[in-house]
């Protein structure tokens, strides 16, 4: 539960919710499929048990890793696929020790739920910080930077010698900061959806 809090607690409320849901879904899917694979491996028995475990770990790891490359999944569910791989491997490999599979899956899910509830309580009820507000402030400042840059360009072009009213003039660095802010704004927009 403590590790769940450490891992999913984020600065923005939407990011905490996103990581918590991704962790929960990844754990449920990984644990469920891991239990099925472990049960199938136990039914095979003998040396086939280890072979089935190895093949299932390889296939699930490869499939989940390649799913992480899909841009739509990478943007919103990359953390969930990583947790899926981790939980699936943990459950299947511990399935080699018969009888502990269901108890391990239950304990892992319970601790994740406890950590998730703590994080959601803190980030949504105690002092929420919303990514949408930060995105709004960021876009407003970018429009101001662009307006100053355009004003500065026009003043330089027309060589207008009017008094400047405590305004910073043309600034190439502010224009470049606007151009290089796409990744941050996309991240904030994704978190604002949550």
Automatic annotation (TrEMBL):
InterPro entries: ALMT (IPR020966). GO terms for biological process: malate transport; monoatomic ion transmembrane transport. Coiled coil: none annotated. The chain crosses the membrane at residues 21-41, 47-67, 79-99, 111-132. GO terms for cellular component: membrane. It is a multi-pass membrane protein. It is found in: Membrane. Keywords: Ion channel, Ion transport, Membrane, Transmembrane, Transmembrane helix, Transport. Belongs to the aromatic acid exporter (TC 2.A.85) family. This is Aluminum-activated malate transporter. It comes from Citrus sinensis.
